[in-house]
Amino acid sequence: MQMGLGWRFLQLRIERYFVPEEALREALLNALCHKQYQSGVPIQISVYEDKLYIANCGCLPENWTLENLMSKHASSPYNPNIAHVFYLAGFIESWGRGIEKICSACEKDGVPQPEYTVNPGDIMIKFSAPEDRVIRSVTGRVTEKVTDKVTDTLDETSLKILNLLAVDPAYTTTFLADVGAGRSRPYFVGSI
What we know:
The protein is α+β, with helices and mostly antiparallel strands. It has helices at 21-34, 66-70, 80-88, 98-109, 139-152, 156-167, 173-181, 185-191; strands at residues 2-5, 8-11, 44-47, 51-57, 115-118, 122-128.
């Protein structure tokens, strides 16, 4: 996407997440409709740089396999009342199409199909990111270089204050002025 500015063009950055919004929405709705609430275990969502998991206490209907789940099937929500409310609210169109919609959204967006893991007491969906959509964390590499350059230019008092804040970021300016700088609060606040 480009935006024209006179004779120049500015390239705008467009974020593309590795889980299509429609697929994520359907996966969350499925988790809510099929959860076994009596377990007391919350739906668990784990997000990493290159994958996302949604785990849910629940089980497949009797005599169902992962193969049944992945093919066209009649819906059998564990919580039909919740599913009905979602249907009336317009969140789901019909029962039994959630996985089909998830897979279709992933295919349309050019990302890998999700993987399902079915255990006796839980079901988990894993979305994996294609390499071009992984946003690697650079914090560790950058922090070390920046810290070295910043601390080289700081005086002893500033380093003392930074060390105090590293121990407890909730220290007040009054405490830092007294203990860290050995100055009055107005002087300290004016100098930082």
